[in-house]
Structures are given as C-alpha cells and as structure tokens.
What does this fold into?
Amino acid sequence: MYIVDMLGITKTFGELVANDNVDFQLRKGEIHALLGENGAGKTTLMRILYGLYRPDTGIIKVAEQPVEIHSPKDAIANGIGMVTQHFALVPPLSVAENIVLGNTDGFVVNRAVIEEKVGAAAHRFGIEIDPKSLVRHLAVGQRQRVEILKALYRNARVLILDEPTAVLVPQEVDALFETLNRLKADGLSVIFISHKLHEVTQITDRVTVLRDGKLIGTVDTKGMSQSQLAAMMVGRETFGVTRKDEQHQQQPVTLHIDNLCAKNDQGMPALTNICLEVKAGEILGIAGVGGNGQKELAETLCGVRECASGSIQLEGKELIGQTPAGFTQAGVGRIPEDRHEGMVGDLTVTENLALEHLNEYTRSGVLDHKAIRNRAEELIRQFQIKARPNDPVRTLSGGNMQKVLLARVLSRDPKAVIVPQPTRGLDVGATDYVRQQLLEQRDRGAAILLISEDLDEILALSDRIAVIYEGEIVGILPAGEATPERLGLLMSGAVKEH
Amino acid sequence: METSRLRLRFVKTDNPPVWVRPLIPVLALVVTFILTSALIFWANANPFETYYHFLIAPLTNKVSALEILVKATPLMLTGAAVTFAFAAGYYNIGAEGQLFAGAIAAAGLGVAMKEVPAFITIPTIVIAGFAAGMLWATIPALLKVKLQVDEVVTTLLLNSVMGFIVSALLNGPWRDPNSGWPQSPEIGASAIFFKLIPRSRLNLGFVIGLLVILVLWFVLTRTSFGLKMRAVGLGKPAARFAGIHVGRTTLIAALVSGGIAGIAGVAEVAGIQYHLIGDLSAGYGYTGIIIATLGSLNAVGVFIASLFFGLVDAGAQTVSRVLGVPVYLGEVTQATMLLVALGFFLLQRYRLRRM
It folds into this structure.
C-alpha cells in the first residue's frame, strides 16, 4: 500500500518540461530518496505534492484516495509536510510560537499552554528542542529541527525534506539521520531530496532517480553502489575532474593576507586576524559551514567590503584602500559569490562582459559598441556560453551565468583569483566545467583562493585546505592529510589546529 | 466533460512579443473610451463626437496642431529629466520643484538682463535655469548618496518647500508693482524665446526640448556613462562589484536630472508666460514621471509619450469649448487613460494560456 501515489505527473513552465509523465510511489514507513541533478525536476515534483504548483496532467493519491491539492493548506490537511532549504521561521519568535503560527486554536494565544503542548510533541517525536528559546538564537541544525517538528505537530504522516543536509555540518547530519530513523520506526514516511550520493546510500530504503524531468527508475537502495546511482543520475558512468598533485611546492607567494579583520553588515566582527598565503599555481581551499565569515572574507578580498585592519598584498603590492576597480587593475580576478548580484540581470550578456573594463572600450566618453560586441562573441565561443550576445543575463541558466562571470574574469589572466561558492546551484556538467577552468588557471600559475561550503569540492580541488570558524582560521592542512572527519571537527569548532 | 468549459490562465513571460508595444496605446484608448463613455453621456454629450474633438480634431487644423507641440514641450523636458534619474535608479519625484527653481532663475535674470542682447541673454538663462535646477536637486542627492536618505521622500517634500519659496517671492519682493498681482515683473524682450512660427505659441523651447531628448538618447545608449547609469539603476551591487562608482554615478544622474527639469521651468517662463507665476506648471514635474514610465525610460518613448499627452491636453480644451462639457472631463480621461495604459504595461508581461 502506498501512502502517496503520483501518477503521470507532467508540469511545464513555458518551453521547459520540468516533469515529464513522472510516476512516484511512497510506501508507509520508508525513507525514500528523490535523486537527481539540479534542474532534474525533483523540487518541482515535490512542490506539486505540497500544493505549491498545479500539475498540467496527472493524478495524486494519498492513502489510495485521489486528492486535489491546491495549496499547502490542502497538503497539510492530507498529512503532508515539507521542509524547504529556506526555513519559514520568524526569528524573533520562540520555537513554540513558530510552531503554532497559523495553527492556533483560537484568537488568544496562551504562551504557557502552547509551550507545554509543543514541548510534549517534541518529547513524543524524540526531537530535542526547548520550546521557549527564540529561533533567532538557534543554530541552523536546530532551526531545521523546529521545521520538522512544525510539520509533525500538524499531524504530517509524510515529510518532504528538500536537500536537508545542505546547510549542516557532518555532526548535525548524523543527528538529523538519527531523528529520521526514529520517525521512520514510528511509521512516518520521509521523502529525502538530495544529490549527495553517500547520504542517499546511508539513510534511504528506496531511491527514485529523475533526469531532465523524466523518471529514470525506482530501485531499492540496498545493493546499489554510489557509482551505479551516479550513472542513473547523470547518464554516464564517471564524473568529476582530476587534479594533478601539487607540483608547485617552491612557487613564490602571490597573495599574502596578514591579520585581516573586518566587520559584518551589522557592524559585528566577522573576521579576526586572518593570515593566509596563496602561492602561484596553488588552490587554497577555505572550508567551513556557511555564515562563519566566508562572505565577508570574499567581499574584503574583492575590495567591496571595508576591512577594519590588516593587509592584503598581491605580489608585494598593498591592496587595502583600493577601490574595486583598483583590485581588478592590480590583477585580482574577482568572482562574486552571488551570481545574481555579480551581474546586472537586465543588461545583456555583451554589456555584462564589458562592465568591469568599460574604460578600455571608451573613447572620449563614447562606447565602442563594435569592439565590445566582437569581444563578447569571442568570449561566448571560448567559454562555450549557451546564449546570444543580446540576451539579458537574467534569462540564462545558472551554469551559463557562471560562465559569463568566469569569462569576464579569467580571460584576463589574473594573478590571483577569488572564487567563493563557484558551483553553488549548478548541475554536474556545469560544475565540472567550472572546476576544470579553475584547475587550468592553477596550472597557468594563478594563485586561487577557493571558498566553498561544499566539502567534496574543497577536497577535489585544493592543494591546501584552511578551515574557517566564527571568522577565524582554525587550521590549515595539506590536501593529503585532510579527511572529511578531521575537517568536520575543525568546521564545527570543536578543535583548533595550529 | 471539461471540454465545454474553457479554462484560461495567466502565465508570466519574460519576453513579450514586439508587436505588443504599438498595440498598447490603441488598446488603452479603446478601453478608456468604453470606461469614460458613461460619464460623457452624463454630461449630455455624444461619446463619439467627444472623442473626435478630443483626439482627431486637434490634428486637423494648424493652430491646434501647433498647440499640441507647445503643450508637449515642458513634458518632453520633465519626462527626460525623470528618465535620466530613474535610469540610474534614483527616484527623483522632485522635477516639479526643480522646474520652479529653473523658472525663478529665468524670471530673475530675464528682468536683470533687460539691456543685454538676446544672443547672450537666452543662453545665459538656459544655463542658469539648468544650474538652479541642479542646485535644488543637490540637497536630496547628497542626502541620498552620503546618508542613504530615501530620495522619494526628500524630493517629494522639497516640492512643497519650493512652492512656499515661490509664493514668498511672488507675495514679497517680486510682487508686480503695477498690477499688485502675485506675479513677477515681466522679463525683458531679450530674454523671450523667439517664436518658431509667427502667430502661434510655438517657440524656441520646443527645439531645446528636442535637443535634450537627443542628448538623452545619446547618453543612455552611446556613452559609457550611460551604461554605468543603467548598470547602477538595474543592479547596484553588481555595478559596485564591477568597479563602478555607484555614489558618483547616482549623484551625477540626480543633478543632471534636476538641471533638465530646471530648463523646463526656463522654457515656461521665457517661452509662454514671460513672468513667474504660481500656476506656471500644471503638474508638469509629476506628469514627467508618468511620461518617463510610459516611455519605458528611453528617449524615443519619452518623445512619443509627451506628444500624446500634448494631444490629450490640447484636445481637452477643444472638447470643453465645443461641446460645453466640463474641462475636468479631460482630466478624468487623462487619468483613466493613464491607469489603463499602466495596466496594459503590466499585462503585456503575461500571456493567456488554455489549461
């Protein structure tokens, strides 16, 4: 008996077919992975189940009964709960208040009563959380627990988790998996959206694989290897880039960061005495859980955030006090963390490619449109950007946007490259491309500072790995000595290695 | 069983087809006509006849056709002024006040330079009007760039301040000594914009308006400053990241915008009224916002939109004169048309799809 049965679901967005005649069956009391690359249609399918989208065609049955799900309210009424990557919590309110929000019995909210009810529910489901604490004070892992409890509190029998581990440190992932296994034992069904193979093989009972919106198959997890699943997911046996081992031991230091301190947007210290050296022809990876100063570090090194003290030297030349344009001029290749904030979405590919170097295309104030256009066409070819020169950048896919940024920066052979989260949200193909480009830059002799929350990415690319925790570098290891466990301990702030 | 019911749904589209654009004014007209017909009936007039006098009649004779251009002149200038600021993401709602700043400069210098020949006086008052508009725009622009004070609020409020300044001038030192009316003394003959066509009100101001539109087009599309402005307007963080001085770009755009609005004031004083009066502007600064929006922030669009508004303005007067309906009917029609047109602009981003 299936608790959820989705039959022949098709959903299109304009030209794009996000789900193409997809079937999906969830058994009672199982953890079921929905596996696929970014853009494979996993989230769309689940948004349909949760009532956020209407399918073009297809039938949804819950507990064998056909149902119409028009809104999340209908989904909740049918016992379906969803925890998205972006939590829907109100930070200044308490855990209990967040959980009863939109679900209060009457007009008056009695704090003591709801705290007791929520506490009882937390105890019943074995979720460790203090109903009185303010959400604002909770760590990401705890907030996720609040979201799960919120769904359970509303009598969810089916729990959809959209990439739940993306924001967690390894230790928090373990805690989440423990919770999920306990809930499974209680008869709850879990849909686990992911593209991380080791998690899928670790926690789930069955796997449904989507590729390009189509159902590839549903299999029992037992007996599937990670590479078999990967093959189903991407349609080819192997993927990933290969890194030649460090050959540049004796290279000079290109980028020298000394005692760098900076504040965050709230004026609180975000970076404390960061000291790093990046050699020519080296990738230095900065690992860490999101929100530990990575954003501020990248922005300071790109010249768009004022630093409180310290120095940044490129081949001995001080960069502190320079404008962003000065950083570019000096030879820093600056790739912004947020693609959408790094380019002007409503300007064309051509204009965005020229934006950083307008002076070179300007004669007495007037733009040389022809030169700009020629350069853009050249870069579009060279970097295999799938777009026309006059397309507004916002119409491009994430991968092509990132290629535009890479083209703008890397085509100028920068001495040092700052790349925060270069493959966030990209599919496997685009990810490979970006990583390959970074490795080529390294082999060319550029000093690359790679900031990433994706540990696999750090391990795959870096020659040395530094770990950032609460704005401090808590350890620097050669790639050969770094294991996920050791990095995980450093990332969680449990130990420091100096 | 569903076949008998036609289910339609709005779907958002990124790139509306090109043919939609020219269709919008036509559709807007038709819908406005339908909406306002009831009112016109109520005023004891025939809607078709009314609309004929509104939109067609002004084009059929030379005098009223020229009057359209006269009415369009200040709108071209304020429309260009607002576009310049909006393109850089600076929401200058203060064109009205900046217009009066320019008008004060023109009225003052126009009297003071009575003895100076026209070929000196006219360029001087235009430049002075530009400078005055710019100066008045400096206050909110600096507040925005240095202290991040919201410009919508400051520019809007400064319009009222300028209203009081004008009123203080007209009731105080500049009150016409002969008539005692709250209007400044008439400017000298050398400051008056010469007529382009004799026995009409069409004057040099229209040519200046055209020039400004041309400059606007050139700056926005052909210069690196224009691209920087648009980058700042469309994505500040990205522009900053790419090394563009966001503050400086915003400041320049805001000041030039104020300057252009100032020229609109000069054109009204030197071309039409010949002295400063409190009713110098029929809300031209605010209409400029509408024109810039309907013209989708490009020079050609601004030009067309101001001509169209000129036509409606001229038509409203004809209608009330010929048919004896209240002149307010013109204003109601304008406002209705504006709302309808904005609605269509919104709707063009959607397409209707059968479910």
